[in-house]
Amino acid sequence: MRTFFSKLSNPAEHQQLPLIYPLIIALLAGAVFSLALAPYHYWWIALLSPALLYATLSKRTPKQAFLIGWSYGIGLWFVGAFWLYTSIHVYGDTNAFLSVLMIVIMALLMGLFTAVQTWLYRRFFPETPLTFAPLWVFFEWAKTWVFTGFPWLFAGYAFTERFLDSYAPLFGIFGVSFVVILLACALVEVLKKRIFWLIPSAILLLGAWGAAQLSFVTAKSEKPLSVSLIQGNIPQDLKWLTEYQIKTLEIYTRLTRTEWGRDIIVWPESSIPMFQTDIEPFLDGMKTQAEKTGSSWVTGIPYWDLPESQVQQHPMYYNSIMATGDAAEGLYKKQRLVPFGEYIPLSGLLSWVLPAMQNDPSMSGFSRGASEQKPLAIKQHHLGAAICYEVAYPNLTRRNASQSDFLVTVSNDAWFTGTAGPLQHLQMVQMRAKENGRWFVRATNTGVTAFIDHHGHIVKQAPMDQEFVLRGDLPAMQGQTLYTQLSDWPVLIFSLLLLIMGWIYRPRQVDVSFKSRR
């Protein structure tokens, strides 16, 4: 292993490998990265994969680094996000060739994040973990907002429920990723006989142990609320058919019949497959039943905002969560919509590619909810809400958690049945719970329905792809983690300072060597 890394990263001592070799190594390193995440959990790959990328970049020109980084990014996204194939091919009615082609295009585009990252690294900064890790973090952060964001496949998720996740309540997912990448690069340096890097590595590991001893939140003294999560297991290809709508309501009503009297009953995202304007008698009946039995009812529902539609002079539809019943009120409108899973980017141009999705109400013209929304009011508590893909956005969940005693997320991952997508999604919910010190209840259509405690541990989990009622207790928490208070700013500012110092003290003779090799 030491000889291998030495040949990759010490071309001064060995003849530099032709570019094709680091390109292949980077492609494979990116392709295997997702094995570090759910459902595989080979966490050590999250160290090995970026370590290989770091080693292949040694003494490379910026142009070569761009290609190596792009190769890594293509492998990362083609394999790591291949679960999109199910939604595009199976439910989008797109033929297999076009479906794979669309994922290839997505991988080419998303791979540019790593390509630009590695170009900047070799063009402006010295070769050290102290510049590579900050750049990695900045580009993970950029994936949460560039072109609305696709915040998936972060290095820190590999350590959900593992030793390094104790940094999450302090610095969030980007803090965990920073530590992971620094340790990965330090491994390369140690194998190159730069033993000094054992010291910062030991400090980071000791810091993880120390962070695990800190406690920012406590449970409130009152009795936890009893909660029932209803998993209806409605097939995606039937969910929005007009003739199956009543059947869907019958399934959820039947599963709920024994749960009346529980404090909170939660139905998943769009479990009511009609706008509230089309089903008012049903909603009134559910509200009456909930009030009569002392239950709060929380459900996902497409919401047609009639007053706003009149003002905007066109229909305003929202993917929403509604709370009603006993001591419950509120409406949350989804702020982040997932491409290809919930809406079609440039749908007018792509209508010929995804014909089956054009008539799916969940894909047609949903609007984005406002950025500042009140939490749902439940039994004299505040319930922060997130719908499906939104839990992938750390700062969005942080804002909701800062006003809440506990959190709920509803989802319909039937789009990705049989893939790693739903389990990766659940892993993100776990990290959001850990970051903010709040319990998360997650109700889904087909799985994974679960109770997750404030440490990010799964307390209870329903089996996937079957009808199920998952019962549990939900304690209200008080206090705020450091991350909830300060957001991503500490790790971003620290990373920026490291990059500024790296740029200032970069050996200028390296610039000369680049110019001579052009």
Automatic annotation (TrEMBL):
Pfam families hit by this protein: CN_hydrolase, LNT_N
Predominant cellular place of this UniProt entry's protein: membrane
UniProt keyword GTP-binding present: no
Transmembrane intervals: 20-44, 65-85, 97-121, 133-155, 167-188, 195-216, 489-505
Subcellular location: Cell membrane
Membrane topology, from the record: Multi-pass membrane protein
InterPro entries associated with the record: Apolipo_AcylTrfase, C-N_Hydrolase, C-N_Hydrolase_sf, LNT_N
EC number of this enzyme: 2.3.1.269
Domain of life where this protein originates: Bacteria
CN hydrolase domain residues: 230-476
Record keywords, A-Z: Acyltransferase, Cell membrane, Membrane, Transferase, Transmembrane, Transmembrane helix
Pathway noted in the entry: Protein modification; lipoprotein biosynthesis (N-acyl transfer)
Transmembrane helix recorded as keyword: yes
HAMAP family tied to this protein: Lnt
Family recorded in the similarity comment: Belongs to the CN hydrolase family. Apolipoprotein N-acyltransferase subfamily.
NCBIfam families assigned: lnt
General function of this protein: Catalyzes the phospholipid dependent N-acylation of the N-terminal cysteine of apolipoprotein, the last step in lipoprotein maturation.
Record's protein name: Apolipoprotein N-acyltransferase
Upper taxonomic lineage: Bacteria, Pseudomonadati, Pseudomonadota, Gammaproteobacteria, Moraxellales
